[in-house]
Amino acid sequence: MKAVTRQTFIAGLAVTALTLVAGTAFAQGPAKPGAPAPAFSVVDVDGKTQKLSDYAGKTVILEWTNHDCPYVRKHYNSATMQNLQKDMAREGIVWLSVISSPAGEQGHVDAARAKALTKSRDAAPASILLDPKSALARAYGAQTTPHMYIIDPKGRLAYAGAIDDKPSSSASSLNGAKSYVRQAVAELKAGKPVSEPATKAYGCVVKYAPVS
Amino acid sequence: MSTLKMTAHTGLTLARRAALALALLIPAAALAAESTAVTSPRVVATLLSSRDAVAPGERFQLALVQKIAPGWHTYWQNPGDSGEPTKIDWTLPDGAKAGPIQWPAPSALPVEPLLNFGFEGTVVLPVEISVPAQAKPGERFTITANATWLVCEKICIPEEGVLKLDLPVEAAGIVDAAAQGRIDQALADLPKPAGFKAKLTANGADKLALALPGLPAGASELRYFPLSDTLIEHAAAQPSEGGSLTLTRSSAFRIAEPTVEGVVTFREGGARRALLLSAEVEPGLIQQASAPARPPAAVTLPALPALPAEDLTIWLALAFAFAGGLILNLMPCVLPVLFIKALGFAQAARASRSQVRQQGLLFLSGVVATFMVLAGLAIALGAGWGFQLQSPPLVILLAVLMSLIGFNLIGAFEIGGRVQGLGDGLASRSGPLGAFMTGALAVVVATPCTAPFMGAAMGYALTQPPAAALSIFLALALGFAAPVVALSFAPGLQRLLPKPGPWMVVLKQAFAFPMFATAIWLIWVATMQAGANGALAALVAILVASFSLWLIGVTRRSGLVLRAIAAAAALLLVGATSAFVIESAAPTPPSQARAEASDAWSPARVAELQAQGKPVFVNFTAAWCITCLANERVALSRQEVKDAFAKLGVATLKADWTNRNAVIAATLAEHGRAGVPLYLFYPASKGAQAEILPQLLTPDILIGAAERAAGREVKTAASEE
Questions:
Q1: CB neighbours of A209 closer than 8 A, spacing ≥ 6?
Q2: Which ipTM was obtained for this model?
Q3: Would the CB atoms of A105 and B154 count as touching at under 8 Å?
């Protein structure tokens, strides 16, 4: 009897040890930094279905965008956004631009127009997700364009918020701005916790489609 | 005269551009007390002065007036979920000063599902200007306001205008009654300071309660507008009950100050009222970000950090560390030491219960102190856990220790039935030092086991801030010490131990063999690190150490002279051998045999192979890493894996961390690991980021990862079966 009890005990310990090694079972929660990022399955400009789970093991950046929003234009006209996209791609990070404006609202584009914009602006997202029903925006609670989300290789939201610390549409505000995205990516890369995982996003309001 | 400049970066149609050009060309004939208007199809902005002429030393009110087109709005100082507040940059005569914008109470402007705070219709933003006393009558007092604002409907247009007022300085100022009247009205409408102290307290993990004890009883339609944009979810409902508002914490929730400022608006008897609130914050809410702030990088010994309750992961890690510590008790190199300690308790239990308890606590302090020293070293050196096994002399020292404990267990140093060996000699000594030393010894002999078996947990711990890392090690130490401490405190448990008897001698001898096995493994590690000389050094060290102990033991009951000679001889031998060991155990580069097995890793080599269109598998391993060796055996060296790799053209690289290597350590850290194993699979395209494989491999995991990296599937012997 006693031997059985001890065996059970050891088996219990062994299970604990295995869980320890696996070490990834964490509680589900809302889309807050530190919690698992909401899963998605959205059609991109190439008609391909992009799933967050496709990128398990990689860092993913979501960029809410609206090409006519002055705040977005500040970052694209100065090539700041494109440079960030290219630098992130070089780090092996998957950059997904998200367009959540419904038809008839500012920023709404079809796939062809989205691709043309990428070409003309020399932008470098891995892909562009078309979200005209604003479902993805609702899932993440996106508020502004730009609104940036970083998802770590384990699928956890590592950062949500502003692209930098200068909430202004004026190009001069880019001087000396601290890029929260670069900061978070560098910290992730160094295996450190993200020091500012949640900031207040700034920009134009995301044009939400009415709930159907 | 006035000049104006308008920029609307976007959304401007040609007609709008034309309107803008007109506005530029035709300055409106403004009254002296009001600047020329800056006009866009959305906003007509002017600067309004309560003075037609200013007096030296006086203070007066100006206002930026925005007439906003229907459907459009500009923003309050906290714009809410999007937007940007109106800003004014002043250029004033020397010595003159402009105060801040005195903000009217905002309106809540829904943009489903979000909420903005701002103004519709006409908004008057008063600013106080002080005229310097040295201003002289007859001079001009020129005020230039460079104002920027964002005006939004659903779309947003940033606008800016340069508004200029040129007022004369006169001995007595001239009040512009109409302007003064408008500005006074705006000032009268500003939110008034609340005559009561509001209180902000936590209400569960994601809500806040704002107590408004002084609000009139009949107040309805309450809404709170915080000045900080990281306090609440702006669009969330604010249910009120009994003079308290329930607010929802912002996803970027952060309070840095002991008070938070804001405005509360409500309706009282048909009139809309607004109060300026300064709410006292419950101390527990202050400085709480949505994630713990990083403690300073300095290594501080184990003051437990204040960990936020919401952060489940750290508590989970602590729980796992405690469980891991418990498991360590069962490791082949630890169990013998602890078992003998436990038997000691069983024997002593009859003698004195309090003494047993004291021993238990001393054992605990020995364990904790040793763990903390080792963890502190691992963090301070940035070496990662397992660093103890990267230095050949240290590995040899551990092998010697294991051997001596083994010899002692088997009875090699026993003279006349008395136990006197190293380690156990200290351990069975009933003094306080003895119990403390047993704890320390248990940890030291456990380290070769912790490194390979606890790699994942240690890796997690060492990627945390130092305070969190030390807490994890502390939990590990507590778990490790728990069984012995529990035994020392619970007489009931002690009774469960079998009665002492001759079987103890048999068991004690049997326990010697796991120790020898551990020693053999350590000697093998030393051989991997330092070649054949490493093995020789380890064996010589074991010989000399055991001979010295035997010599001391055998002469223990002899005369003083003989004992002194034996001790001197032992000391001399050990000294000479140490020098020999350290010299022979210099690390050698990885042996040819191992380097050939798979290509040596370097970041450049990975890039090169990727550029050639090959998927690259990198195996970060070390000879002392048991998990690594297990993976080699059960997965990496399996034929189906080799076949799949060959068919998919996978290049395999090996990064050997058996000896210290800064580049490898940095790469491990990049991937959030403090130790090996680490398995990376790089896709076959240049610059693509690697997939991190689990620490415990199976052939399926490897083949699956290889297929993903190669971008195609492979039929393997296994899948054909």
A1: A100, A102, A105, A132, A133, A134
A2: 0.70
A3: yes
